[in-house]
């Protein structure tokens, strides 16, 4: 299933992404960490402040397309993290619910 999703991310035609799927997902998770809802301003911030860490940042339009295509991966990763956190804290949650 993972290969199928990756092939949908890369596509048969259109621009070849300069950033990998992992980089796009990581940048978008950072976007939520920085509480930046506006993708355009976030792209501008990366371009100005993090150009040494992300030298192959695509233009805004391609970054937006890659972000939109990576949403399913971001959601899957966040769901995985929440599930791990839930399992880790299950005994504490159960204790609170039973009081």
Structural class: mainly alpha
Give the percentage of residues in beta strands: under 5%
**Based on DSSP secondary structure assignment, what is the total number of beta strands?**
0
Residue windows where pLDDT falls under 50 for at least 5 positions: none
Overall geometry: elongated
**Main beta-sheet strand count, sense and barrel state:** none
First and last CA, distance? 42 Å
Average pLDDT works out at: 79
**What is the radius of gyration?**
17 Å
Order of helices and strands: HHHHH
Helix percent band: over 70%
* Count of helix runs: 5
Task: Please describe what this structure looks like.
- It is a single chain.
- With 99 residues, this protein is mostly helical.
- It contains five helices and no strands.
- It has helices spanning 2-10, 21-33, 39-49, 60-88, 90-97.
- The longest helix has 29 residues, at 60-88.
- The model has no long low-confidence stretch (mean pLDDT 79).
Secondary structure: elements and pairs:
Elements: H1 2-10, H2 21-33, H3 39-49, H4 60-88, H5 90-97
């Amino acid at each position: 299933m993972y290969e199928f999703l990756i092939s949908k991310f890369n596509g048969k035609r259109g621009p070849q992404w300069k950033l990998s799927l992992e980089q796009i997902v990581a940048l978008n998770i950072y976007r939520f960490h920085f509480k930046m809802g506006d993708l355009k301003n976030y792209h501008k911030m990366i371009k100005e402040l993090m150009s040494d860490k992300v030298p192959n940042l695509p233009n805004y339009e391609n970054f937006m397309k890659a972000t939109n295509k990576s949403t399913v991966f971001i959601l899957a990763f966040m769901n995985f993290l929440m599930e791990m956190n839930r399992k880790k804290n299950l005994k504490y949650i159960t204790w609170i619910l039973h009081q």
